[in-house]
Amino acid sequence: MGDLDGKAALVTGAGRGIGAEVARKLAARGAQVLVSDMDETEARGVADEVGGAVHVGDLTKPGACDELVATAVEAFGRLDIIVNNAGYAWDGPLHKVSDEQFQAMLDIHCIVPFRVLRAAAPHLREPAKADAAAGNEVFRKVVNVTSLAGMMGNAGQVAYAAGKAGVVGLTRSLAKEWGPLKINVNAVAFGFIETRLTAELPEQVREAFKAQVPLGRAAAPAEAADGVVYLCTPASDYVHGQVLNVSGGVTMGMVT
Fold it and tell me: What is the CATH number of domain 8-246?
């Protein structure tokens, strides 16, 4: 028996990296998981592995987030856990960032989670109201993925950081709205994680990032996923409106 038996989860950006590890770990704990990604081959591979459902598409397109939620509800008949993980980096110093580039970072990191949660609202709120009316305390979970860049900024990432900062405001505001319904809303702020995106960084930059980590190394995707999964489980039922840093000890504040 797993602590997520009978729960239905939706994970975006789950075809590879951290998202794929989150999907695997949720499934291992008993949840049914919908794997969402733009890459059909990767998404179907993870979905087949965990015995889950799949959604393939660009979530920044009109109507895509509504379609995503409808796919999950159709597959599982319910929705208990949402992990907004999809994202990518398109970096550059402010004076070289185009309107298109800035908007793209806002779209994927802030607007997509907003649209996913808006589409999911009736499927979380109405069952929560029914549980409350029956005198049952049942917790549902939302985990949004942000970044230390969204918390403390990072030179060369003004667009990415702005999008990730928006996630923090979204998370904390929604926590105040949905708390009375026992819908936990939290975020995870990642530091330096070994993914395909960070693998593309110049070695000098990678080493500079590692030098800032008190634990002395980057995290593996599976380690990063553990922070997300914790916020999806009953162990976090009284954790609400928080941003959990999964950073190896990198602290808040200005760094050079």
Answer: 3.40.50.720
Q: Is 160 a catalytic residue?
A: yes
Domain ranges of the chain: 8-246
The three-state secondary structure class of 182 is coil
N-term to C-term CA, the chain:
48
What residue ranges in the chain does DSSP mark as E strands? 8-12, 32-37, 53-56, 81-84, 140-147, 183-190, 243-246
Q: Could you give the CA distance from residue 197 to residue 87 in angstroms, rounded to a whole number?
A: 10
Model-wide pTM > 0.90:
yes
Place of tokens 């800035």: 102
Q: Which position among 88, 160, 230, 238 bears the catalytic label?
A: 160
Evaluate if residue 209 carries a pLDDT over 80: no
Contact in structure between 83 and 232 (CB atoms under 8 Å): yes
Lookup: tokens for 244: 């959990």
User: In this structure, how many other beta carbons lie within 10 angstroms of the beta carbon of residue 228?
Assistant: 27
pLDDT digits (tens, 9 = 90+) for 48-100: 999 999 999 999 999 999 999 999 999 999 999 999 999 999 999 999 999 99
Q: Sign (positive/negative) of CA torsion 34, 140, 228, 230? A: negative
Residue 82 backbone dihedrals phi, psi, to 5 degrees: -125, 125
The model's pLDDT over 130-148, given as tens digits with 9 standing for 90+, comes to 999 999 999 999 999 999 9
